[in-house]
Amino acid sequence: MCVNNVRGQKKRQGASRWPVEGSADIKKTQDHLPKSHNKKHTPRGTHLWEFIRDILLHPEKNPGLIKWEDRTEGVFRFLKSEAVAQLWGKKKNNSSMTYEKLSRAMRYYYKREILERVDGRRLVYKFGKNARGWRENEN
Fold first, then answer.
1. Distance between CA atoms of residues 79 and 64, nearest Å
2. What parts of the chain have a pLDDT lower than 70?
3. Is 37 part of a structural domain of the chain?
């Protein structure tokens, strides 16, 4: 059944404003969206946990900042926490970066199981099950 809309054009009564899942109209809608809307958005640049991992994997580039406590378990310690924060701030163009801010950002990784806390030990963290690329035999 058809009715006239405000412009006098015919419209199917009961037709949805949005395309129905599986219809040809939804495919047309997706084709016109930027690619970031079709797939899960991934931010550009290095994530903080990857930055930390890379310092651990290449200590010759930044010696004495972070060290492995137990490489096989993924446990590491910050030796110069403020220096790491300043380096991260430089990379992210944030001159006011402090270790307090950096560690707050690190805590967001607990829920996603990228980092874990090591109870009772200050400046000590552990890579979680969703962190990639830190194991010696991992590619």
1. 6
2. 1-44, 139
3. no
